[in-house]
Design goal:
Blueprint (H helix, E strand, L loop, with lengths): L14 E2 L2 E3 L2 E3 L6 E5 L6 E6 L3 H16 L8 H17 L1 H12 L3 H24 L3 E3 L6 E9 L2 E5 L5 H15 L2 E5 L6 H12 L7 E3 L4 H10 L5 E5 L2 H10 L6 E5 L5 E4 L5 H13 L11 E5 L3 H12 L20 H16 L3 E4 L15 E4 L6 H4 L6 E7 L2 H9 L3 E2 L1 E5 L3 H10 L4 E4 L14 E2 L2 E2 L4 H6 L2 E9 L8
Parallel strand pairs: 1-5, 8-9, 8-11, 9-10, 11-12, 13-14, 13-19, 14-17, 16-17, 19-20
Antiparallel strand pairs: 2-3, 4-5, 6-7, 7-23, 12-22, 15-16, 18-21
The chain binds nicotinamide-adenine-dinucleotide.
Length: 498
């Protein structure tokens, strides 16, 4: 396709953003700003506003007014769907601009960004249907004098905090569902990847979303994010990010008992049985750890492979990883781009050091890729990993795979579940009985059989254990943002009590 014709040039100017409240851009004015460098090129690419807590409070007031006067929740599902469908068109019309901003701020390859932006448009289309499909229940079995209704109402003002790894895609797995339910939103993207969320505010406004329904404040997580978690006038907080910050959000939510949706970390197993198609399984395992440079909540970072094929499988992995194209994210052929920040880069390198110090055997990779500019890490594989090593227990959030082996089915399941997380798991076997027993026993919100990191907005996503609370996407993803109200209507003459 023409879009993939060649490597893109770095823009010559830094793009500046105000923030978006009540249907309008607000300039930074005398507020401080945050300048973002492209992690692959070390040059400034965007500048965002460091909003204050007063700015947040104003955005919440606006979202509250927009909710209370029913300018959005009072519309029919069909009218809400029209706006969501127009928003999908708006995303497609600005796809190249969004993809470039995403790549410049996050360091992910441009081909991947393009795929994510178009995928996001299709989520809006799915959610448009969900706006019309959302419904309650009736109880017509309460006798002739009573009928019961269970109705769903939008929960109110939703605070939305998102991470830097899939800034636009994760936003799009939340926003159209929140809007489909009739809620209003104050979003706070990660301070290092705010651009595409801000552009989305403009796209939604142009799609006909009433002013005040979707607002974006930008700035530091420790200030604005923390204030959102504590805010008494936010009815629900949807937080996607690390388990550590998720725990803080959980504690802070106690003030007003706000409902929480938490999508947190993972340490996801890839179980490979000896009867799998080993070549395909190795391809899936390499994709699962290299995709988004391993900075993916559902990265398959723990390979648990049957001992009888472990040597052969390790060789397949090393051969494939040597062919993965790591490099400039502006090159459409790049498969693995830069690491998002120097702190994240240091964290990954320090885990690689710990793996070696703990006695894991390095199969390939093992450090930084030497480049003139930017920060890149070579996909790294450790074998002979025991479950008491930090590299096997902690979420590294980088392209680092650990290999442990098993001899029995029970041992495989025990290893897979030996983690505080429960986000995702993959199972590779050609035996249907074995696959079924394994997906029944593994503790994870999403399980893939003979594939990994696949699926669309039709099905719910979320975690077991310390990977979170609640579900996003699918019909569940709209219901999540609703309250259930029970109504009883008496019919006929009352049987008097007094
Ligand atoms: P993070 O927790 O550092 O930040 C996430 C968001 O929280 C950012 O917007 C940040 O500004 C904000 N924040 C920071 N401190 C805060 C505070 N005290 N109060 C409120 N908000 C605060 O996470 P990250 O480094 O941006 O993302 C990586 C993490 O996100 C990984 O642990 C990953 O597993 C997780 N993640 C989970 C999912 C999922 O769906 N389960 C998806 C993507 C990422």
């Amino acid at each position: 396709m023409e879009m993939n014709a060649g490597k893109l040039a770095l823009p010559e100017t830094v793009r500046e953003f105000g923030f978006f409240v009540d249907g309008k851009w607000i300039a930074a004015g005398n507020r401080r700003v945050i300048e973002r460098n492209s992690p692959a090129h070390d040059v400034p690419v965007t500048r965002i506003t460091r909003c204050t807590v007063d700015d947040l409070n104003q955005a919440v007031r606006v979202a509250r007014d927009a909710f209370n006067d029913r300018r959005w929740s009072g519309l029919s599902g069909a009218d809400r769907a029209t706006v969501l469908l127009r928003a999908a068109e708006g995303i497609r019309a600005r796809a190249e601009e969004l993809a470039l901003l995403e790549t410049l701020e996050s360091g992910k390859g441009i081909s991947q960004s393009r795929g994510e932006v178009l995928g996001a448009a299709s989520i809006y289309e799915y959610a448009a249907g969900a706006a019309r499909a959302l419904h309650g229940e009736t109880f017509n079995n309460l006798g002739d004098n009573l009928i019961g209704l269970v109705i769903r109402e939008p929960i109110g003002v939703v605070g939305l905090i998102t991470p830097w790894n899939f800034p636009f895609f994760i936003l799009s797995e939340r926003v159209p569902f929140i809007l489909a339910s009739g809620c209003t939103v104050v979003a706070k993207p990660s301070e290092v990847t705010s651009a595409t969320t801000l552009v989305m505010a403009e796209i939604l406004a142009e799609a006909g979303l009433p002013a005040g329904v979707f607002n974006v404040v930008t700035g530091a997580g420790s200030e604005i994010g923390q204030a959102m978690t504590e805010h008494d006038d936010i009815d629900m907080l949807s937080f996607t990010g690390s388990t550590a910050v998720g725990r803080r959000a959980l504690l802070a939510s106690a003030g007003n008992f706000k409902k929480l949706g938490l999508e947190l970390g993972g340490k996801n197993p890839q179980i490979v049985f000896a009867d799998a198609d080993l070549n395909e399984a190795a391809d899936g395992v390499v994709f699962g750890i290299c995709f988004n440079a391993g900075q993916c909540c559902v990265s398959g970072s723990r390979l648990i492979v049957e001992k009888s094929v472990a040597v052969e499988f390790e060789k397949l992995l090393a051969d494939k990883i040597a062919r993965v194209r790591v490099g400039d994210p502006l090159d459409p052929n790049t498969q693995v781009g830069a690491i998002v920040t120097s702190q994240q880069n240091d964290t990954i390198l320090s885990y690689i050091g710990r793996g070696m110090a703990e006695g894991a055997r390095l199969v390939c990779g093992g450090g930084a890729l030497e480049t003139e500019k930017g920060q890149f890490i070579r996909p790294t594989v450790f074998a002979d990993v025991r479950m008491d090593m930090a590299v096997a227990r902690e979420e590294i959030f980088g392209p680092v795979l650990t290999i442990s082996t098993f001899e029995t089915f029970e041992e495989a399941i025990e290893l897979a579940n030996d983690t505080v997380y429960g986000l995702a798991a993959s199972i590779w076997t050609k035996n249907l009985d074995k696959a079924t027993s394994a997906f029944r026993r593994v503790q994870a919100g999403r399980v893939w059989v003979n594939t990994t990191i696949a699926g669309g907005p039709e099905t719910p996503i979320g975690g077991f254990k310390q990977s979170g609370h609640g579900r996003e996407t699918g019909i569940y993803g709209v219901e999540e943002y609703t309250e259930v109200k029970t109504v009883h209507i008496a019919l006929g003459k009352r049987d008097l009590w007094v």
